[in-house]
């Protein structure tokens, strides 16, 4: 039996980055848009907006 691969915690942005990297590898023109569309389909618009807002807040704090 194969070991279950552990995924990064939701909301860290690592899952989004992995999907975007995979889309870029496949030749997508805008890989972040592909990742965002997949996230909206999986989590819904409200949840994705909340996660994006949290990500922007964290990035702003790191920039200080």
What is the count of β-strands? 0
> Which percent band covers the strand fraction?
under 5%
Number of helices: 3
Distance between the termini: 47 Å
Q: Which runs of at least 5 residues are low in confidence (pLDDT < 50)?
A: none
Order of helices and strands: HHH
Helix-strand category: mainly alpha
Shape: globular
Instruction: Give the rounded overall mean pLDDT.
Output: 92
Gyration radius, rounded = 13 Å
The major sheet is characterized as:
none
In which range does the helix fraction lie?
A: 55-70%
List keywords for this structure.
64 residues
Short account of what is shown:
With 64 residues, the chain is mostly helical. The chain has three helices and no strands.
Describe this entry's structure for a reader.
The chain has three helices and no strands. The chain has helices spanning 14-25, 31-43, 45-63. It starts with 13 loop residues before the first helix and ends with a helix. It is mostly helical. The longest helix has 19 residues, at 45-63. The protein is 69% helix and 0% strand. The model has no long low-confidence stretch (mean pLDDT 92).
Please specify the SSE layout and strand pairing.
Elements: H1 14-25, H2 31-43, H3 45-63
Helix pairs in contact: 1-2, 2-3
